[in-house]
């Protein structure tokens, strides 16, 4: 130990065998080396003096965290390593920083906090236990005393009438590794040149005379022996754990080397064959990732095909949940009807408002559909990274030869760019086709007009909302779909009697006569020629006219309500068609095309390269080569350390 240490001093003691003395003239074959010096020290007093010089230079009047390493070689030494730390102080001395006590305490705690460390706590016997600062610091990191050994010093300097029996017996002290009394050389002994061996004999005599009950477990030699026993025990307990950790580190290094790939010395003649192999591996796995077939992926990530499925059947469906009645108010619909009728009498209402509204609402499906194309295109591009991560051969090839990966990305990106534009145009044309023809004859919509009209006629009220899609099979109490005429018939709100107050021959108003009697009555101008219409053989519109004559006509406001109720019904059918058709169009125009063209295009573009171009592609990146070299060096060092640990473990056990 160094009196007044200012730096951590790491002593590495090494036992040497007889006859292996480094310097034959050294007494007891003992010598030391300080790492900062190239000199071999045979005088340990000189070692102490040199250490003080180094400390004063590095720390001045304070302390320094920079450790000083000392190798000690001796026939009598035990294989032991220990760190001598600066002694804890309460107050600073002149020229020292005010926080010097805190600096030293932080330094000590940084060394003894490691749970694998054995702590040697030096306690002065001539100081009351309540003032033992070292014990207070140790209690912070080892409160149970499981890994602390105490060295009781200054026993021979205790006040007359006191003794160290209680302390040596461990009374009221919790140091599980023991308490050992020692007597160091006094300053007088140092001045008189008393040797270490002479000091050891004096120490032995002192404890035999004054503490006979503890004489066998006291002294510097016993302290060294006890520390060596504890170290060996610690090695036996911890070395297998440390070896297992080293083995895990070596396995990680091996995996990293495997991921980097084994560098192949590919000849110019074999480069084309190797390129074909990489293309084949990549194409097969990429197809599985974008279409399906590969279940377990790196880091349990989702495959591109799963993400594309979610885009189609979760995200796209959610984005098409559009409120088609948001801007559909009665006033706006009436205005549209008036605009469509114009100067014509309000007897027949044009279906133009309904058609225009449906066209506008159908066009709202275009942006979400195009966005669906964009997102699928993105996932197909991301599939390159997924394939690289999950296919070892591909990952290895791309890491070793990054220019090949760069060329793959370029070719696939160009292909997808063309397919993306074609797919987007196809979707836009499809939506445009839906807007160009609003079909009231759709089998799921054909009877909707009659059903809604009947509701209005029966109750003269309409319950607005978002009705369910109608079946293509009308119920028994529903009328069959009327033939499309492109109009809704409106009854103007006027007095139904003629200006001459004349009534039909039947004695009741014409509007309430049975259809058969009404049809037999004279025409509007008293002309009997209207009777011709009753002959189905002579009138192609007989069925439609009969249905209109059998039902009361809708009022203007009721026609408005009818349009407002029919728009969401028709749009629900359009939405279903878009949800079904857009994914099919995207897959057929982008995914399938890429699957068919990927391998042939890669082979065509990369298989026809010149010798110089292939050589450039198969050039290993310098960073990868350096990384491989470092990992191989780490593996070599780790293997050597593991061998040393095995040897040490066998030595300790025997």
UniProtKB/TrEMBL annotation:
<dbReference type="GO" id="GO:0005874">
    <property type="term" value="C:microtubule"/>
</dbReference>
<feature type="region of interest" description="Disordered">
    <location>
        <begin position="464"/>
        <end position="538"/>
    </location>
</feature>
<dbReference type="InterPro" id="IPR003130">
    <property type="entry name" value="GED"/>
</dbReference>
<dbReference type="InterPro" id="IPR022812">
    <property type="entry name" value="Dynamin"/>
</dbReference>
<dbReference type="GO" id="GO:0003924">
    <property type="term" value="F:GTPase activity"/>
</dbReference>
<protein>
    <recommendedName>
        <fullName>GED domain-containing protein</fullName>
    </recommendedName>
</protein>
<feature type="domain" description="Dynamin-type G">
    <location>
        <begin position="1"/>
        <end position="240"/>
    </location>
</feature>
<dbReference type="InterPro" id="IPR027417">
    <property type="entry name" value="P-loop_NTPase"/>
</dbReference>
<feature type="compositionally biased region" description="Polar residues">
    <location>
        <begin position="468"/>
        <end position="504"/>
    </location>
</feature>
<dbReference type="Pfam" id="PF02212">
    <property type="entry name" value="GED"/>
</dbReference>
<dbReference type="GO" id="GO:0005525">
    <property type="term" value="F:GTP binding"/>
</dbReference>
<dbReference type="GO" id="GO:0005737">
    <property type="term" value="C:cytoplasm"/>
</dbReference>
<feature type="compositionally biased region" description="Polar residues">
    <location>
        <begin position="516"/>
        <end position="532"/>
    </location>
</feature>
<dbReference type="InterPro" id="IPR030381">
    <property type="entry name" value="G_DYNAMIN_dom"/>
</dbReference>
<dbReference type="InterPro" id="IPR020850">
    <property type="entry name" value="GED_dom"/>
</dbReference>
<feature type="domain" description="GED">
    <location>
        <begin position="560"/>
        <end position="653"/>
    </location>
</feature>
<keyword id="KW-0342">GTP-binding</keyword>
<dbReference type="InterPro" id="IPR045063">
    <property type="entry name" value="Dynamin_N"/>
</dbReference>
<dbReference type="GO" id="GO:0016020">
    <property type="term" value="C:membrane"/>
</dbReference>
<dbReference type="Pfam" id="PF01031">
    <property type="entry name" value="Dynamin_M"/>
</dbReference>
<dbReference type="InterPro" id="IPR001401">
    <property type="entry name" value="Dynamin_GTPase"/>
</dbReference>
<dbReference type="InterPro" id="IPR000375">
    <property type="entry name" value="Dynamin_stalk"/>
</dbReference>
<dbReference type="GO" id="GO:0008017">
    <property type="term" value="F:microtubule binding"/>
</dbReference>
<dbReference type="Pfam" id="PF00350">
    <property type="entry name" value="Dynamin_N"/>
</dbReference>
<keyword id="KW-0547">Nucleotide-binding</keyword>
């Amino acid at each position: 130990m160094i009196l007044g240490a200012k730096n951590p001093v790491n002593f590495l003691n090494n036992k040497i065998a007889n006859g292996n003395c480094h310097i034959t003239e050294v007494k007891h074959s003992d010598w030391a080396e300080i790492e900062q010096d190239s000199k071999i020290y045979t005088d340990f007093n000189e070692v102490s003096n040199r250490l003080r010089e180094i400390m004063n230079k590095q720390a001045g009047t304070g302390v320094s965290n920079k450790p000083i390493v000392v190798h000690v070689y001796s026939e009598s030494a035990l294989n032991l390593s220990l760190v001598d730390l600066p002694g804890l102080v309460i107050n600073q001395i002149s020229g020292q920083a005010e926080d010097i006590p805190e600096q030293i305490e932080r330094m000590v705690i940084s060394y003894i906090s490691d749970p694998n460390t054995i702590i040697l706590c030096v306690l002065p016997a001539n100081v009351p236990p309540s003032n033992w600062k070292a014990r207070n610091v140790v209690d912070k990191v080892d409160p149970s005393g499981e890994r602390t050994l105490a060295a009781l010093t200054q026993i021979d300097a205790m006040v007359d009438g006191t003794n160290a029996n209680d302390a040596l017996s461990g009374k009221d002290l919790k140091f599980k590794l023991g308490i050992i009394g020692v007597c160091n050389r006094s300053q007088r002994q140092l001045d008189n040149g008393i040797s270490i061996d002479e000091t050891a004999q004096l120490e032995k005599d002192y404890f035999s005379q004054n503490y006979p009950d503890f004489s066998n477990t006291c002294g510097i030699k016993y302290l060294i022996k006890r520390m060596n026993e504890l170290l060996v025990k610690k090695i036996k307990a911890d070395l297998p754990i440390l070896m297992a950790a080293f083995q895990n580190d070596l396995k990680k290094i091996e995996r990293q080397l495997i991921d980097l790939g084994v560098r192949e010395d590919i000849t110019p003649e074999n480069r084309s064959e190797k390129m074909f192999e990489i293309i084949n591996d990549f194409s097969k796995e990429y197809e599985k990732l974008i279409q399906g077939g590969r279940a377990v992926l790196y880091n349990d990530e989702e495959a591109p095909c799963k993400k594309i499925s979610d885009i189609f059947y979760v995200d796209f469906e959610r984005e098409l949940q559009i409120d088609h009645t948001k801007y559909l108010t009665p006033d706006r619909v009436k205005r549209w009807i008036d605009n469509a009728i114009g100067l014509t009498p309000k007897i027949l209402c044009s279906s133009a408002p309904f058609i225009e509204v449906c066209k506008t609402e159908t066009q709202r499906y275009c942006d979400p559909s195009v966005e669906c194309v964009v997102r699928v295109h993105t996932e197909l591009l991301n599939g390159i990274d997924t394939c690289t991560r999950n296919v070892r051969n591909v990952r290895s090839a791309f890491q070793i030869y990054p220019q090949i990966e760069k060329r793959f990305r370029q070719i696939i990106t160009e292909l997808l760019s063309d397919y993306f534009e074609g797919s987007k145009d196809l979707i836009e044309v499809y939506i445009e086709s839906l807007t160009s023809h609003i079909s009231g004859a759709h089998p799921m919509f054909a009877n909707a007009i009659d059903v809604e009209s009947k509701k209005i006629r029966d109750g003269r009220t309409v319950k607005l909302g978002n009705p369910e899609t109608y079946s293509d099979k009308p119920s028994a109490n529903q009328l069959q779909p009327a033939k499309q005429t492109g109009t809704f018939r409106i009854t103007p709100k006027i007095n139904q009697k003629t200006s001459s107050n004349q009534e039909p021959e039947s004695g009741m108003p014409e509007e309430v006569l049975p259809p058969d009697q009404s049809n037999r009555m004279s025409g509007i101008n008293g002309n009997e020629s209207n009777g011709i219409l009753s002959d189905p053989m002579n009138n192609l519109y007989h069925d439609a006219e009969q249905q209109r004559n059998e039902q009361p006509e809708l009022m203007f406001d009721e026609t408005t309500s009818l349009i407002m109720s029919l728009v969401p019904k028709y749009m629900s059918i359009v939405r279903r068609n878009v949800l079904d058709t857009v994914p099919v169009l995207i897959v057929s125009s982008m995914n399938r095309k890429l699957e068919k063209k990927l391998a042939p295009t890669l082979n065509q573009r990369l298989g026809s390269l010149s010798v110089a171009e292939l050589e450039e592609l198969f050039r290993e990146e310098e960073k990868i080569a350096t990384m491989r070299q470092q990992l191989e060096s780490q593996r070599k060092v780790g293997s050597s350390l593991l061998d040393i640990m095995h040897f040490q473990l066998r030595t300790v056990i025997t």
